[in-house]
What we know:
Layout: H1 2-19, H2 24-32, E1 37-40, E2 43-46, H3 48-66, H4 79-83, H5 87-90, H6 92-115, H7 117-136, H8 141-153, H9 157-168, H10 174-202, H11 206-226, H12 240-263, H13 268-290, H14 298-301, H15 304-332, H16 345-373, H17 375-395, H18 400-427, H19 434-462, E3 464-468, E4 471-474, H20 476-497, H21 507-517
Antiparallel strand pairs: 1-2, 3-4
Helix pairs in contact: 1-3, 1-10, 1-16, 3-9, 3-10, 3-11, 6-7, 6-8, 6-9, 6-12, 6-19, 7-8, 7-9, 7-11, 9-10, 9-19, 10-16, 10-18, 12-13, 12-19, 15-16, 15-17, 15-18, 15-19, 15-20, 16-17, 16-18, 17-18, 17-20, 18-19, 19-20
Amino acid sequence: xxxxxxxxxxxxxxxxxxxxxxxxxxxxxxxxxxxxxxxxxxxxxxxxxxxxxxxxxxxxxxxxxxxxxxxxxxxxxxxxxxxxxxxxxxxxxxxxxxxxxxxxxxxxxxxxxxxxxxxxxxxxxxxxxxxxxxxxxxxxxxxxxxxxxxxxxxxxxxxxxxxxxxxxxxxxxxxxxxxxxxxxxxxxxxxxxxxxxxxxxxxxxxxxxxxxxxxxxxxxxxxxxxxxxxxxxxxxxxxxxxxxxxxxxxxxxxxxxxxxxxxxxxxxxxxxxxxxxxxxxxxxxxxxxxxxxxxxxxxxxxxxxxxxxxxxxxxxxxxxxxxxxxxxxxxxxxxxxxxxxxxxxxxxxxxxxxxxxxxxxxxxxxxxxxxxxxxxxxxxxxxxxxxxxxxxxxxxxxxxxxxxxxxxxxxxxxxxxxxxxxxxxxxxxxxxxxxxxxxxxxxxxxxxxxxxxxxxxxxxxxxxxxxxxxxxxxxxxxxxxxxxxxxxxxxxxxxxxxxxxxxxxxxxxxxxxxxxxxxxxxxxxx
Length: 526
């Protein structure tokens, strides 16, 4: 029943987004070409029912991949007992997925630019299916971590889907489609919490990953059948040395950040991982600048609109993850603390579920704002709304419904901001680098979420009270400080974004930009 609720709640807003009424000229064009694909200025375009099917398929598949971010968070405390190992070892079940996703997104994006988007998306679906089955059949920590790595690698699907939907959607649906698919990166993380809580509350934890396997199978089938075959590959070679350097640098840096609170921030291991990661990434940057066909074109990434958007992505990603970590924990704190709300894992998940759906519901609004106000202003507005949600949470923590209201406001801001980011990026990079550029932007969001986890852990463990002999819990002030830090991060993100130029993302301007920058290599149907 609950899975049905989530699926319906996910698909209905997506379908509504692409079926809303449009100007008569656009409706006439869609009616004339219903069920067919046309090619306009080298970009293959679907119309009518095929367009709706493809957009919904990309949205559902991206959501399925994004669910992996938070799927095991509600059962993380039980994993040592379930897997027969230490808490330190089981923490990698979450960390490994985030690391794999961070490394894979830019690599998958570059591969998609070189060999075509659909083959890489199909491969991502296979990774998710195999990873889910591996975990579902495992009872020890080693295979579980391997499966979770494969699940994280499957998240490379999302930036490719964002670039793909921009290509195949009709001009009058393009902004709405990009907004809807982009929002799934936040929606999946939010919906994964209640979904996992529901399964963990009354079922064997392995069922969690059989559900993931079912979603992966559907994702694979939809990608194969609904997404058109287009020749969107571009000449070039894969920079495997750059991919290896990026992987080493990112893994070292993110492991140091995510494990710093456990290992100790002044320990040699933590400082060595963080410092070593920074050194490797600096060396990688020098290498990429000297490479004729780099994994990431840093000169393009350094363009002011792209640069400020990526910096803003880190801060807004931080803001999104902070509430996903802090609100459930506050809901589950025992009433004996004097401020805890004494909710079960399932109850906490249900209080959080509307926030996840709110992200998807509000993504069409972001598309409208982008067209009217410009993508930069829309992104800054999203960050400001996110900060407002945190301000509400810092003052209203006395009842579950109050935290739900704050989460709804936060999620609205995330939806508006996440939908605007890829529009800014794709408007300012050549068409043949679109997938890899969106992959880098997605990586920046992931880095923000990883940093948020580390910062929230530091805050919550730095101010504690003794609940019982030998049992320390965070104080109410620690939770309030978490919300304040989230608000500050979102406001700084809004300020950074406003440093970039404003651009209205209408189809004509965007298409002209792509034609000016991209080599003339039409993407034709097979």
